[in-house]
Amino acid sequence: MVFVVGHDWGAIIAWFLCMFRPDKVKALVNLSVPFIPRNLCAKPVECLRAMYGDYYYICRFQEPGVAEAEIARLGTRTFQKKVFTYHKPEPLYKPEEGWGSRNEKITLSFWLSEEDIDYYASTFEKTVSLDLSITTASAVRFLLLLNLRSVESWELAAPWPGAEINAQTKFIIGDEDLTYNFPGMHLYLNFCGLRMFVPGLQDVVIMKGVGHFLNQERAGEITKHIYNFSKQF
């Protein structure tokens, strides 16, 4: 059995691991993305589009070529800077005119260095083809295929209607994370909504003044949370 820690997409995978193979998970610490029960009526992108419209970044990037063209226009380093420095509680939109210019000055957060950006950009470029004539599996295409992948997960989860996450769990999120500010999320996390579907939930931690990349923004605190929780097991 394993002790699992997940963040963002990793958190989604961790929730599914706990649901599909509870015999393999000793305990779980998940960050930023809470467990959302299977919607019987609508696909994930349809729900996001209903809440935020066509220009919400996930909805906008479902159109083939849009994400690749934007990354190519901005350059990978500028694109990465924009992603990692986004620290607002409101939804992230991709306007028709794009996310600014390649040469704009972007001030990095205190927890982020130019060396970090170099590493992220070079690693990203190894997995991504920005040649729109090439169709290869890549990091960006995981996002582009969100609806397909989510529908696959949605269909695969059909045998588990009303499934619960019984692994002993701690969930941590920042109050300036755009996920925490989804409609209804405050109530869901603060008034036992999450616990209805995660009976093994021991604690929900809402970190004040913290955005989406809390594992980097408050690395020391997150490490303590993980370590102290893991000592129980």
Automatic annotation (TrEMBL):
Name the Gene3D superfamilies on file: alpha/beta hydrolase (3.40.50.1820)
Single GO term (MF): hydrolase activity
Q: Which UniProt keywords apply?
A: Hydrolase
Keyword Cytoplasm attached: no
* Annotated SUPFAM superfamilies: alpha/beta-Hydrolases
Entry-linked InterPro entries: AB_hydrolase_fold, Epox_hydrolase-like
UniProt family annotation? Belongs to the AB hydrolase superfamily. Epoxide hydrolase family.
Which named protein is this?
AB hydrolase-1 domain-containing protein
